[in-house]
Amino acid sequence: MMDLIERYIQAVTERLPDGTRDDVARELRANIEDMLPDEAGEEDVREVLEKLGSPSALANEYRQSKRYLIGPAMYDAYIDVLKIVLCIAPVALAFISLAGAVLEPSGGSYVDYAAAFIGGAVQGVLHSFLWVTLVFAILERAGMDEGNLSFNKKEWSVDDLPSAVQSPMGRIDRVGEVASIIFIVGFVLVISLMPELFGWWEQTDGSWQVFPVFDLARLEAYVPAIVLLAIIGFCLSVYKIVAGRWTVPLAVANTLFNLAFVILACLAITDSGLWNQEFISHMEGVFEISAGTLEAIMEAGRTAAVVIAILLGVLDSIMGFLKSKDVRLRDLPDKVLGLMGAER
Q1: Is the confidence at residue 93, as pLDDT, over 80?
Q2: Could you report the per-residue pLDDT of 20-79, keeping only the tens digit for each?
Q3: In 10 A of CB 278, how many CB atoms?
Q4: pLDDT band for position 316 (50/70/90)?
Q5: How far apart are CA 55 and CA 321, in angstroms?
Q6: Range with the largest mean pLDDT of 15-29, 70-84, 188-202, 222-236
Q7: Among 85, 111, 162, 176, fewest CB within 10 Å belongs to which?
Q8: Domains of the chain: which residue ranges?
Q9: Separation between Cα atoms, residue 240 and residue 21, nearest integer Å
């Protein structure tokens, strides 16, 4: 019984500034005890806590008004993600700007290269602050610090309180989400700003020449979808870091994202018009192989890439649901047998 009360108080106070947590905890504990009848049981405690309502909503009442852009419940995650993006975006944009200056047909001086590098880094810093802050402000105003996605709005109950002892199996892999953010930010910057950097680089007559992998005109049709999917993936990774644990709605959102990713990846991989014919012809000469042999190798590579994309999407989706239900893989046969009404 006391465990429920303490869990509820913790769920409220962790959303408040450090300086007010102890006072609020004492006041809230006293209020709950006053609301309970003599010789109260667990059902009485549940009734009182559900009458008080969602810990997030009650924390808002104690705060009286939101005088911040990013609240206490999400501030630490905001700083963590901002540090990650600040380590990626300025460096990526700096090198993209530098590569653009190096590839200029008219050439340039070292001063021009330095200016391009510094200018790209400054843009990266500004964009990092803008977009990370915008994402977290939207999550804050949408009430996602409660641990539920926006399509999972339902009346709060005591069963929604986090467990006193939580299994590590259901925790979000922060390292994996950080790696996902790094990949998303770096990839979308290059593919949208200078996709020709993906190519075969050769130095000719003292200057660099690039044979792009992609047909740049054809790639333009995919860029809006890639950027949109990258934004969704970035927001989803940020939310996972904020939530800290897998839930069924989060697993559903993760599955929908994986489905969209797999569809786009398969469309792009199998689109023969997306691959630059000049690049393909140049590779024939570099590796001294016939066009037919290279085409067979590329076809096998495309097939393998499609299979890998589908497998990764399916496995990641399944693992999300398993972790949201806190099911261990070694327990899965017992779970299946239990659903069938049988015993092992």
Answers
A1: yes
A2: 888 888 888 888 888 888 777 888 888 888 888 888 778 877 775 555 677 766 777 788
A3: 11
A4: very high
A5: 25
A6: 222-236
A7: 111
A8: 2-63, 74-146+169-200+213-245, 246-344
A9: 25
- CA pair distance 167, 171, nearest whole angstrom: 8
Please give the structure tokens belonging to residue 236: 């989803």
pTM here is 0.62
Q: At how many degrees (to 10) do helices 223-243 and 72-102 cross?
A: 150
In this structure, the number of other CB atoms found within 10 A of the CB of residue 3 comes to: 12
Q: Is 64 left (phi over 0), alpha (psi -120 to 50) or beta?
A: left
Average pLDDT of 12-27?
Answer: 83
User: Of 182, 320, 329, 163, whose CA–CA distance to 240 is shortest?
Assistant: 320
Predicted local distance difference test score (pLDDT) of residue 154: 55
Q: At 202, is the pLDDT very low, low, confident or very high (cuts 50, 70, 90)? A: confident
